[in-house]
Amino acid sequence: MAKKKIDIPLPVLATGVSLTDTHCHLDMYAPDAAPTEIVAAARRVGVSTIVSVGIDLASSRAAIRLASDHPGVYATVGVHPHHVAELTDQVYAELAGLAAHPKVVAYGEIGLDYAKQ
Questions:
Q1: What are the DSSP calls for 12-40, one per residue?
Q2: Strands of the chain, DSSP E
Q3: Where residue 1 falls among pLDDT bands split at 50, 70, 90?
Q4: What is the pTM for the complete model shown?
Q5: 112: three-class secondary structure by DSSP
Q6: Separation of alpha carbons 93 and 116, rounded Å
Q7: Which of 24, 28, 34, 57 pairs with 5 at a CA distance of 20 to 30 A?
């Protein structure tokens, strides 16, 4: 059976070295682990900055909440390419409003995705 990502030991970086995780989904780990535990574990192995990526309006809001609750955590807002058919003018307007939040650093999950489902 494959290990869950959370169970795989992470390398510890040399003192003074830090990393930025530019793409994760902190809101998708529950109920396996609390986001606070995940952020703390990342810090212990040298990840100083985390970008939690929204894939729809709900997860974009969740990413902003998590970013607001944790220093060094930022958010992106967006809609996953597999769901572009669900986009409406209202969704675009709401994304633009969410993007104005000070902890939002980008629009994410908004590009082309050619992976087969």
A1: PPPTT--EEEEEE-GGGSTTTS-HHHHHH
A2: 19-24, 47-53, 73-77, 104-107
A3: very low
A4: 0.81
A5: coil
A6: 29
A7: 57
Q: How many CB atoms lie within 10 A of CB 83?
A: 13
Residue among 77, 82, 86, 71 nearest 54 (CA): 77
Tens-digit pLDDT profile for residues 59-99? 999 999 999 999 999 999 999 988 888 889 999 999 999 99
- Convert the pLDDT of each residue in 26-57 to its tens digit: 988 756 678 898 999 899 888 999 999 999 99
As a whole number of angstroms, the distance between CA 96 and CA 15 comes to 39
Q: Which of 102, 105, 111, 78 is nearest to 92 (CA)?
A: 78
Query: Helices 35-44 and 57-69: crossing angle, nearest 10°?
Result: 60
Q: What is the chain's alpha carbon radius of gyration, rounded to the nearest angstrom?
A: 15
Domain segments of the chain as ranges: 19-107
**pLDDT value at position 112?**
67
Query: Residue 53 forms beta bridges with which residues?
Result: 76
